[in-house]
Amino acid sequence: MRVRFREAPALYMLLGLVTCARGLPPQEAASDEQLANKALKTLLATPLAKTLPNLPWQVNISSDRHVNAYSNGRGEIAITRGLSWVIGDRFGVWAAAIAHELGHAVLLYPANQPGFEAQLSRDYQAAGGSLNDSGAGEALRVNRSFGGPLNLGGQRRTEYEADRLGVLLMAEAGFHPDFAVALDRSMRSLLGDQSRYSEFLLSHPLWLEREEETMRQQRVALTLFKHFWPDPGRSPGGVAPPIGAIQSVTVITDSKDRTLVFNATLNIRNAQHRTVRLAATLLDGRRTVHAALPAYRAPNGTLAVNAMLPGFEQGHTEAELKIPAAAVEGEVRSLKAVLFLVADNWTISLYFKPVELPP
Predict the structure, then answer these.
(1) Most buried of 200, 274, 282, 325, CB within 10 angstroms?
(2) If one looks up domain 243-354 in CATH, what number appears?
(3) Is 334 helix (H, G, I), strand (E, B) or coil?
(4) Ramachandran angles phi, psi of 276, nearest 5°
């Protein structure tokens, strides 16, 4: 799962901005490891997970600042410090990252696959599903794919299958399938993505493609989740995470007031009873811009502006933000606005827009 689509310094800067947008202190490695192993223990406690190979499962947080997760096939799952920064304190997203590695374990141990398939079929039928449901035959079967240096397509199919199996394990353990979507969105927002045209050169699928495939495969997982956890609020992961996007941003320069006016088109779901806002800050190259006016100054001194979106819980809307040139401290050369869509402590979408201050 190793990715380097953005240079490391830029990634750390973005993570700092996201942490600031969430209003949270950075996580310590020790607390990350505790949270990760709590998620692992929860995932392994279900009848479906009992069919996995009997290994001394544990999660370790490495000091590697690259964004990566991997397992050694003997029960050890490694999460790098870089990935832990991306995940933050979001328990359900930890479960999604770890469940993906458990999905690889299902694929790695063929002797355990018949037991996994049999238990999955039993659980699906107990949840009200039928083996005659459209697509059930494929959905309830482990689909093995083989990849390698000469078969990158096979490697990508293996990643898709590990995603799918992981989501099934998550759902039964009490983590809504949208936590996997939230992980995909976090990775894509912070790390970027290759183009669809270059995907055939990659051993791992595009984050956008992974999200689309997760959404396509959600039916069985949602059936399991709703059966085992009829009250999502009492599930280990809690209610489904907010999922949304900043779809487009236009910028108008108001020369009279010397103000940048941002108009953003947004979509969101799963945001019931959450405080939703659109926030923005400015970068000058890789440097955060500080605020010259107190009304635009975040606690750390950087320039920040917010638009609260009361009642925006599901669907689409538009929002406006304004940044006056007078609020920008010092000389700037290469400005870029970073917009954040935030629901409570979830930063669910980022959008970058080059801008120029009005003269």
Answers:
(1) 282
(2) 2.60.40.10
(3) coil
(4) -110, 135
